[in-house]
Fold each of these.
Amino acid sequence: MSNKEIKNLEEIFNQRIARDEKIEPKDWMPEKYRKTHIRQISQHAHSEIVGMLPEGNWITRAPSLRRKVALLAKVQDEGGHGLYLYSAAETLGISREEMYEQLHTGKAKYSSIFNYPAVTWADMGAIGWLVDGAAIINQVALTTTSFGPYARAMVRICKEESFHQRQGFEILLSLCKGSEEQKAMAQDSLNRWWWPSLMMFGPKDEESPNTEQSMKWKLKRKSNDELRQQFVNQTVPQAKILGISIPDPDLKWNEEKQSYDFGKIDWDEFWQVVKGHGPCNKERMTARVGAWNQGTWVRDAAVAYAEKQANKNLNKAV
Ligand code: FAQ
């Protein structure tokens, strides 16, 4: 294709983006658009799958049958979200094996938040309330993203995330209405999960290399800082209902901005975790790589079965 032809296609593509039309997998798209989407969607998928680990670890220790059923359903949903997202990324021409390989070799990132340990039952509450709460804020913005399969996956995912957030909040509400020890457990959990939850939105805008282009393509609809601020504004009143304190001495309502001011995020900690040096990075990767290796016989059996079925159908047809 000549440069002139590419320029024309690019022009048509940009006009479609400007008109808020969805871009579909077989439509022409700039190579950078395709690559950026593969990067973000696959990392999002990896986050869902690795994100099953901290909570999966508590299913056998849930304090009642009701809690166990809800947690089990939530963790299964996360697996489902990962699968929708891998499928959306596959429509852009990358195979699932390639994406897994990128995760297992450390080439692809996944959300920093899942490298923190879930050490008490209250952490199941904090993960639902804060981590799913942050995920919803980010993902509601993504329901109107320009790439059709990603936007449609997000609509369904957001509905399920909203149940996740409420089940987490309800766990903490029960603990906060309980004994002094239970309330202290809820507070301790908020203390440990608050700052890592703010980091989920990514680096501040001036240090976010991908935001400018992703906003132009309407992949991102709001910047990292805008979404982080929205999360703080939404979550502080919820902490008041619970009766526990956000661990930030600089948190203060700003009348002029009609928004909360909050303290400095430890960006050094964020980058350490992103680069693989968080409290649980090694444990998480060992679990994922182990699951992949232990699943070899299942994949082999599925392929052998599919081949057998295909041969049977072929013989019938002859
Ligand atoms: N952790 O230029 P930006 C969930 C990387 S799902 C690790 O700002 P971008 C559900 C970033 O990839 C949670 N790395 O990047 C659930 C980039 O590196 P790269 C996941 C991070 O893409 C709940 C570099 O830093 N959600 O929680 C993080 O424009 C409970 C520069 O950053 C999504 O993935 C981080 N926190 O903005 C499951 C949502 N932040 O790729 C289980 C979709 C940034 O150039 C239990 N993703 N980095 O090598 C997004 O909206 C965006 O990708 C951002 C980052 C906002 C995460």
Note: The first strand starts at residue 252 and ends at 254.
Amino acid sequence: IVIISFVTFWLISLILSYFLTRLTMRPIITSWKKQSEFVNDAAHELRTPLAIIQGKLEYMFTKPNKTIIDEAESISVSLDEVNRLNSLTNSLLELARADQATTKVSMRLTEPEHFLPDPIKPFKDIIESQNKHFEIDIHEKITLRVDKDKIKQLLIILLDNATKYTPEGGTIKIYDYLDNGKYYFAVSDTGVGISDADKQKIFGRFYRVDKSRTKPTGGNGLGLAIAKQIVGIHHGKIFVKDNHPTGSIFTVELPVRHKQLKS
Ligand code: ADP
């Protein structure tokens, strides 16, 4: 009996400790796993442009008698890759700062017409120069507490994507509306659209729907992850749905401070 009770006790404590360890360690293991996945993805993304630059430099080194004009193509490719590295490291720093909560945030009370149209102006010219239509309808009179620079960055990400993934002749719109006392602004496009399976994943770090399609557009798969973080800082929400008949609508919900109709 002593042996049986000892074994039973030992078995029960073993099972209990197994489940306890799983429960308490799970968040640590998950976050460690996520972090190592992130480092792995980041290293992979950094390696590609570095390998291209290294290849080009080594090639140029084997031909010391060539002039800059002869090597213009290699130099231009290397510069493109340096720019890619630059934007990638900036995005990585941005995400790391937000993870460590060291991002400087400067919230101010303001109205949509004072912070939304600002970043749009340069985009209007770019979009129209690519034979695409651009429409803006920001009209809600409401007070919101936002960091203007961060919202600017968020809008640039959404407009940049809308432009990248919309072919010539398409339309990109930015508009705002109130629904059930909540404030929303949206960027819609008539571009390639996003499948239901990809709609949640695209906000993850380094996620790209079609890597071969994204390569010429110069994306690194971090834009929407940063967008999500900016919305999080504002205690808002971001979601994507289909535009009809084609394209996507990215909508941002921002908490309303207090309703204030202008006279
Ligand atoms: P990227 O820098 O690759 O554009 P993002 O994080 O901004 O990275 O976007 C992730 C992926 O989501 C993109 O690679 C693209 O496949 C998809 N995506 C984002 N915006 C749009 C859009 N407006 N239309 C179609 N696909 C989009």
Note: The chain has a mean pLDDT of 86.
Amino acid sequence: MNANGATLVASNIHKAFGDHEVLKGVSLSVARGEVVTLIGASGSGKSTFLRCLNLLEMPQQGELAIGTHKFTFGKGMRAANDAKLALLRRSVGMVFQHFNLFPHMSVLSNITEGPVQVKGMAQSEANELGRDLLAKVGLADKADTYPSRLSGGQKQRVAIARALAMKPDVMLFDEPTSALDPELVGEVLSVIRGLAAEGMTMVLVTHEMAFAADVSTRVGFMNAGVMAEIGTPEETIRQPRSERLKAFLSRFH
Ligand code: ADP
Ligand code: MG
């Protein structure tokens, strides 16, 4: 944890693809146990920002501190070495819209792969951890099933269990329910709600406004590559200040 109590501090993050500046100095500080939801129109930079938080994208400018891992980006930056990147990524779990499970592996193997291959955990210990996590996401009976036999909601719950198996300090979710049939959304949201109740630190991108209002400690509105508004759910969702945010929210009524 940092001196200011934050477990994740992103400061002035800039990211461009060619001459397209997608993030124009985005800052976000997340305290341990907070759930921060990012909302905003398609193309506003939400996914790029999340990907910068685990360095799937390398920002061109700014600073990032997660737990004890610190990076300063910029022209003078020495290339971050692979070991340093790997350590940061280990402490940040990520769940995507499309579940990205390994199709040729059983559900249990999907979950144990990271702890065994990356952390060197004994397979027997990883299996025990994997079974505990499957129980936690309500899939205790699916350990030996292959992903192709699961519904979208079940696949996403496996993806969450897989990310949790690395015991991350922070979990990032990028539209975890957007690819799901409506009747499967609730089962995934309820797993995320359970993690929030346990005090997991999370940054989440979603269009599920009622859920965001309910589960988030803060909600940030991204617009054209900046954090245009951020506050409590009450402030951001119920009392939006800018016309842009009002217009964005009106689509969900
Ligand atoms: P959001 O998640 O809010 O919809 P994104 O972060 O996915 O927004 O995208 C923001 C902008 O960045 C879009 O214009 C998108 O086309 C662009 N972008 C994202 N990733 C890349 C990439 N790898 N290469 C080029 N442009 C990209
Ligand atoms: Mg996106």
Note: Strands lie at 6-17, 20-31, 35-39, 61-66, 69-73, 92-95, 170-174, 201-205, 218-223, 226-231.
Amino acid sequence: MTEKTPPATPVAPNPAAPPVGTQPVGTEKTVVLATRNTGKIAELSALLAGFGVAVLGLDAFPDIGEIEETGATFAENAALKARTVAQATGLVALADDSGLAVDELSGAPGVYSARYAGQGATDAANNAKLLAALTGVPESRRGCRFISVVTAHAPNGAEITAEGRWEGRVLPSPRGTGGFGYDPLFLDPELGRSAAELAPAEKNARSHRGHALRALLAHWPAFWAKAQT
Ligand code: ITT
């Protein structure tokens, strides 16, 4: 991602951009999702549905450019994205930094999951590189996990964060058409199905992102109260 200095004063949302959630957008209970990944937006919006917050996407703030992920950990990058967007918009921002850690590859691609096959790489290119890296590696050594760190940051500095994990195995070839990213290569061994073979609600019930966001939401009322002070 390329670097962009956030604007000094909060930018107003573009009124033409519809909220990605189902609830009306007010000023008090609005949360901006600090991500441009459409797969994440769909999953986070579904997980937040019914939680009493209106959700805006970054498309409502065209002046916010790409945010360079300079952190060495998921936690550092999630905080970086949430803080940048909260400061730029004047609204509570929610960021996810996530990736796939493969045992045989010493935890790679990890924080580099989105750019494993190079800056701006497609999901297909990343998946092809992962399969190539694991050529000839037997099933018993293909253990992996998805990791997600979610961070909510308020313009006044209030912040909460939580992590979720999903244990699995890298398949020898893609299976399924749902989800995004490495989902077709990620086997949930308990279900015997890939993440791309799960319905969206099923994936959210088991996924790293679902676990992380549910853990975060347990602290939401106290965070929200602090965010208003
Ligand atoms: P934002 O920074 O705008 O949120 P991004 O895609 O660049 O979007 P990350 O830096 O967190 O986000 O990279 C996450 C990558 O990890 C993502 O692009 C996928 O390749 C992979 N990933 C994370 N969660 C996943 C999931 O639920 N299913 C499949 N792949 C996933």
Note: The two ends are 33 Å apart (CA to CA).
